[in-house]
Design brief:
There is one protein chain. The chain has 16 helices and 13 strands. By secondary structure, it is of the alpha/beta class. Among the domains are: about 1-45, Single Sheet (Rubrerythrin, domain 2); about 75-110 and about 215-400, 3-Layer(aba) Sandwich (Rossmann fold). It has a six-stranded mixed sheet with strand order 4-5-13-10-11-12. The chain is globular, with a radius of gyration of 21 Å. It binds pyridoxal-5'-phosphate and zinc ion (ZN). Pyridoxal-5'-phosphate (PLP) binds near residues 113, 207, 248 and 252.
């Protein structure tokens, strides 16, 4: 059953066959889009058929994915996605929005959105028979690859900056990957991973490099639409008006764009949501290009507490710009202080986000202030990672707890 027919360069349009094992375009190193067999998929599947699926994971969308069923039933690999879409009634009302929804992707097996990409990459790795997978990572992509590789019994090597948060490094080690912390930035780790995959024949998962990552990430767009649809047997799904997500390399927003485009092309949704990418003002390479009206990305020296989106040279920036421009959205920045406030605000909806995960909500707040979204609109903020990933950042947002003697008087005094 042919579901994808090849690759197309997102810059020069060059086409490559489905059996090629390249990662980026041979002419210009452009990111490759996977070309799906849309007609075939339309015959094979439908919204009501998928909504009837018992598969409580992203694998319910297998007919729309460019891999075959990977197997590994009842493993972490099969537990990725189908994360809760929570209605944030209080925050939404305060902002004057029609509806505000939080897609809590911190609730994935390794606690970040990256599991979606790594699950599809590991499925692909098994199909093409590779022996070792590698990725550069600020932490989450590595944890996700290490976790998914563990579920599939596949050796993994992870290269992360030495400054990665401790919880993420612990995950890498616990999932049994070979972990190397490099004396340098994420971008240094990225360059090293490319050299290493060439030298040792490893299969490279890098975000914005491996074309299959966006195919995994697109499943969140499918889920948002399916979950917003009230009737379980609807012929079409419901798309929100605007979706907010944080941007580092720009691969998540690219994946979401791909997902909504797939659904639109299939006729399964009726409108394209406006996609808003949110960067930290300290790591704003894509937002700078957006503001300048440019289509080329100039690197920055990234400094932000939101480590998952600290990227000097975004590897999927051009497609990220397109995701915003082609949908009538935008890419803009928020201050780190606003990200800390967003962590605290999300807590009131029982969502615990790491800084990069909360940045999307900080973006919603700012977009309301700037009039980018209107009152009454239906808005989704994607929460891309769990707060347990970076407890020191959470403590900076929350402040310290009171410490008291174990007496009623002390408690009464403290309650003040
Ligand atoms: C990787 C990551 C992002 C950013 O995704 P990009 O594809 O790099 O833009 C945002 N939030 C979290 C928690 C991440 O791990
Ligand atoms: Zn090209």
């Amino acid at each position: 059953m042919v579901k994808f027919t090849g690759y197309q360069c997102s810059i020069c349009g060059e086409q490559y066959g489905p059996d090629e094992t390249i990662s980026v375009c041979l002419n210009d190193a452009g990111n490759l889009d996977l070309v799906l067999e849309v007609e075939g998929i339309r015959k094979l599947s439908s919204p009501d058929q998928i909504s009837a699926s018992q598969e409580g994971s992203m694998w319910r969308y297998l007919p729309l994915l460019p891999v075959d069923d990977p197997g590994y039933p009842n493993t972490a690999l099969r537990a990725v996605g189908w994360t809760p879409l929570l209605k944030a009634n209080r925050l939404g009302a305060e902002l004057g929005l029609g509806e505000l929804w939080l897609k809590d992707d911190g609730r994935n097996p390794t606690a970040s959105f990256k599991d979606r990409a790594s699950a599809v990459v590991v499925a692909r790795a098994r199909e093409i028979g590779v022996e070792t997978v590698v990725t550069a990572s600020t932490g989450n992509a590595g944890a996700a690859l290490a976790g998914m590789a563990a579920a599939a019994g596949l050796p993994a090597v992870i290269l992360a900056p030495r400054t990665a948060p401790q919880a993420k490094v612990a995950q890498l080690l616990i999932f049994g990957a070979r972990v190397m912390l490099v004396e340098g930035s994420y971008d240094d780790a990225f360059d090293l991973s490319l050299k290493a995959s060439k030298a040792f024949g490893w299969y490279c998962r890098n975000t914005g490099y491996n074309p299959f990552t966006a195919e995994g990430k697109k499943t969140a767009a499918y889920e948002i639409c399916e979950q917003l649809t009230p009737a379980r047997s609807a012929a079409t799904w419901a798309a929100p008006q605007a979706v907010f997500v944080s941007v580092g390399d720009g691969n998540i927003i690219t994946g979401l764009h791909k997902g909504f485009k797939d659904l639109l092309e299939l006729g399964w949704i009726e409108r394209m949501p406006r996609l808003y990418g949110v960067q930290s003002s300290g790591s704003a390479a894509v937002a700078n290009a957006y503001r300048a009206g440019s289509s080329t990305i100039e690197p920055v020296r990234a400094v932000t507490l939101a480590d998952s989106i600290a990227v000097d040279l975004p590897r999927d920036g051009i497609r990220a710009l397109r995701a915003a421009r082609e949908t009538g959205g935008a890419i803009f920045t928020v201050e780190d202080q606003a990200i800390l406030s967003a962590i605290q605000a999300l807590g009131r909806e029982a969502v615990f986000a790491e800084p990069a995960g909360a940045a999307s909500y900080a973006g919603v707040v700012q977009a309301v202030e700037e009039g980018l979204i209107g009152s009454g609109e239906q808005v989704v903020a994607v929460i891309t990672g769990s707060g347990l990933k970076d407890v020191p950042a959470a403590m900076r947002a929350a402040g310290e707890a009171l410490i008291i003697e174990p007496t009623l008087e002390a408690l009464r005094a403290a309650l003040g």
